[in-house]
């Protein structure tokens, strides 16, 4: 069974940093591009970042470029999102998703507040 | 480029047929296929339609998708109470080199 499990969310002060993880199982992780999508409270879905299967290519939404870094460890079947210089508007549930978009994690909540 | 636009809300009664529109631009829907997602309250999005009109296994054939030019539509026939959810369209955008999501449509079953 394909599983994606996010972790690492929590409360962080404005300007702070946080690293999200997405642990995967049940499929050949190294064969798939992976994505991060976020959803602010009561709002719609926003595409955040993506990484190619071998990690050689990445994409960032304009809203996070220069502050967030996506990475992956294919030996650990895990996707990461390093978030820095966090702002109030980064507060959201962050989902990881496999490139076929048919498998998503349950999400992890990031709260940015002083 | 234009981020896909969806009506914020839609409604229907049980058994009725409802359609949700998604209007994009030449750089996204006009050039690429469209996915649709269903998000029940408090849960992660679920892929409902991919490649404009294909259903993943397990998705009832009451759900169907179509695309014409720079617009796409999701149709739900035989509306059921459990269809009450938020629905999002999405497509790859050639200008952004990334995916774009529509703003979402909240479907209410009256």
Could you give the topology of this structure?
The complex is a heterodimer of chains A (114) and B (110).
Chain A (H helix, E strand, L loop, with lengths): L2 E5 L2 E3 L5 E8 L8 E6 L5 E7 L6 E3 L7 E6 L4 E6 L8 E7 L9 E5 L2
Parallel strand pairs in A: 2-10
Antiparallel strand pairs in A: 1-3, 3-8, 4-5, 4-9, 5-6, 7-8, 9-10
Chain B lengths: L8 E4 L5 E6 L10 E6 L6 E4 L13 E6 L2 E6 L8 E9 L4 E4 L3 E5 L1
Parallel strand pairs in B: 1-9
Antiparallel strand pairs in B: 2-6, 3-4, 3-7, 5-6, 7-8, 7-9
How would you sum up this structure, described in words?
The complex is a heterodimer of chains A (114) and B (110). By secondary structure, chain A is an all-beta fold. In chain A, the strands form two sheets. Chain A has a six-stranded mixed sheet, with no helix packed on it. In chain A, strands 1-3-8-7 form a four-stranded antiparallel sheet, with no helix packed on it. Chain A starts with a strand and ends with a strand. The relative contact order of chain A is 0.32. Chain A is globular, with a radius of gyration of 13 Å. Chain A is built from no helices and ten strands. Chain B is mainly β. Chain B is 0% helix and 45% strand. The model of chain B has no long low-confidence stretch (mean pLDDT 96). Classes of the chains: A mainly beta (114), B mainly beta (110). At the A-B interface, strand 5 of A face strand 3, strand 7 and strand 8 of B.
């Amino acid at each position: 069974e394909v599983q994606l499990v996010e972790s690492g969310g929590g409360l962080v002060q404005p300007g702070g940093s946080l690293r999200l993880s997405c642990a995967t199982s049940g499929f050949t992780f190294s064969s798939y591009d992976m994505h991060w999508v976020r959803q602010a409270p009561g709002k719609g879905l926003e595409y955040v970042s993506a990484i190619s299967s071998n990690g050689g290519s990445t994409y960032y939404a304009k809203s996070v470029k220069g502050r967030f870094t996506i990475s992956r460890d294919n030996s650990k079947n895990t996707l990461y999102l390093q978030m820095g210089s966090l702002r109030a508007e980064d507060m959201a549930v962050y989902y990881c998703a496999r490139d076929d978009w048919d498998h998503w994690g349950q999400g992890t909540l990031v709260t940015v507040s002083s | 480029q234009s981020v896909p636009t969806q009506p914020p809300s839609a409604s229907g009664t049980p058994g009725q047929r409802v359609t949700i529109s998604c209007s994009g631009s030449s750089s996204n829907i006009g050039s690429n296929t469209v996915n649709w997602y269903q998000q029940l309250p408090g849960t992660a999005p679920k892929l409902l339609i991919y490649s404009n009109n294909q259903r993943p296994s397990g998705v009832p054939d009451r759900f169907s998708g179509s695309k014409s030019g720079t617009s796409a539509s999701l149709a739900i026939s035989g509306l059921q109470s459990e269809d009450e959810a938020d629905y999002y369209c999405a497509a790859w955008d050639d200008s952004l080199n990334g995916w774009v999501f529509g703003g979402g449509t909240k479907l209410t079953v009256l």
